[in-house]
Structures are given as structure tokens and as C-alpha cells.
Amino acid sequence: MSKVMLLGTAALLLAANEPALAGESGAGLYVPGSTAFGAGVTPPHGLYFTQGFLYYDGHAAASLEGGTLDLNAQKTAAPFIANLLWVPDREVLDGRLGLSVSLPYASYTRLRAGSNALGQNVETSGWGLGDISLKAQLGWSNENNFSNTVSATVWLPTGRYDSGFAPNAGKNHYGVNVSWGFTKIWKDPGIELSASFGLTGEFENTATDYRNGLGLNAEAAVGKVFDNGLTLGAAGFIFKQITDDKGSGATLGAFRGQDFGAGPALSYSTLIGGRPFSFAIRHYWEFDVENRFDGQITTAAITTRF
Fold it and tell me: Which InterPro entries does this chain map to (predicted)?
């Protein structure tokens, strides 16, 4: 596999007809659809920079935001995310170690409620810093074009957060995710299959005494790999909460959530001015959503190697 094709795997991104109900913030720290093509690959030695963008628009019959109950809620979130990944020129357990940090440095949030708990129509919007995440990963590859990676991610409560009906860019609590992913490429006929599986735990939001339950996530992408560096196909995800929400702030009850999504996916790797670049874009339509916001997700990213 060429250096340009390997770079394409380094892009890290930073997810029903009837409105669903939604627990605190209507979503957790882990964003469904975060991985697709190259989910199991840790790239070669180097320093990689990714500029990512995510756009989400969804709705819920009721949502808890900053400790307040909002009815007929709509949320738009659009963070710009910078990611820096370092892969040292040294193997660990016969694999490649990767250390990365992601910073949602400009996160726009807009909230609208057809009627809040006081019977008012309300809307708020604003920009802010999101929650920084730190990730460590270890990956292996073999001569059969099979790669797999294990990783652990920690979220820090650095994002903008205010109690009440506010355009919060952060969740105001810590979180941890552990994942395993794989990528298999068949050179003839040129097909890639990638998938990842993970578990996310979230800590208490001390401002609201709310703690989201454990969540399982599975994501996959399959596509045609063309000789010009283009991979074109489809991606999907499943999120399933397996324990109850807890705390005195969990006024809507156990509120176990689930979320399914699917849509087109594209990645493209090339050289620009002698430097390798990778571009990726995906769009997901959510369906069969329970106790989370229900809508659409678009992600885009550009990655280069220094």
C-alpha cells in the first residue's frame, strides 16, 4: 500500500418520523459515525494534522438541557475540530503506537424549543470551545492487507457549559471509550471493509447530578478502492445504551438510548505540491432512534502528514 493510501487511514474525525425523547443533551460524548474507512489502521511514523468539521441537525419531543426540560426541541451543532496525531518511529509490542489530541476549537450550537417547562417558545445560540479528547492507540498490519487497532480515548470537560437553556458546546463531565477496529482490503477486485466496536462510559455532570449510562457502538464502511486514490462506498453505525441513566437530575427515568445511522462515504488521497493529503466526507441519516436526538450528521476532514 502506498504512502498516500496509508495517509488516508489517518483522518480522525471528529451523530423515524416521530420525534424521540432525549436524556441529558440528547447525546453522549461519543459521536456515532466517528470512524469509517481505515478504522483499523494506525499510519506509519510521522506527525499528522487533521482539520475536521461536523454538522448535526436533529429533533426530540423532549430533552434535558442544562438541567431544564425542553419540549419539541431542535438542536443544530457545528464544531470545527483540529486533531494532531503523532506516531513515533518505534514499535511497541510489535505494533505502531499513536498518540493524539482533538480540540473542537470553534463549536456552534443552536437550540430551539417549541415549548419549555414554562410554556414559552425559546431559542438560543452561540459559539464556544468543545471538550478536548486525548487518545492512545496501538495498531498492527500484515502482508495480507489486514490491519487492526486498539484504542482508548478520554474526554476532558473543557467545553463551554452553563446551567439552564444554553448553547452548550461541552458536556461538563469526563468520559472514557475503549475500541477495537479492523480494516481489510482485497486488492482484486479492490474492495475495502472496515469496522470498529467500542464501549463508552461517562461520569457524573456535577452541575445537574446526571450520569449517562454505558453505551456500545459499532461502525462499519464498505467501498470500492480505485487506483487513483478514491474510495467510494457506504458507512453505517449502531449505538446502544446498556445501562440506565442515573442521578437526581435524571427526571425522565432510566432513558436508555439507541441510534442507527447509514449513508454514503468517500475518501480520496493524493499528492499536492509533493505533500500527501487525504480528504474524507460522510453523511448519515439516523433512524430507529430512542431517547436521543434524531436527525442527520455530515462529517468532512482534510489530513496531511508533516
Answer: FApF (IPR025737)
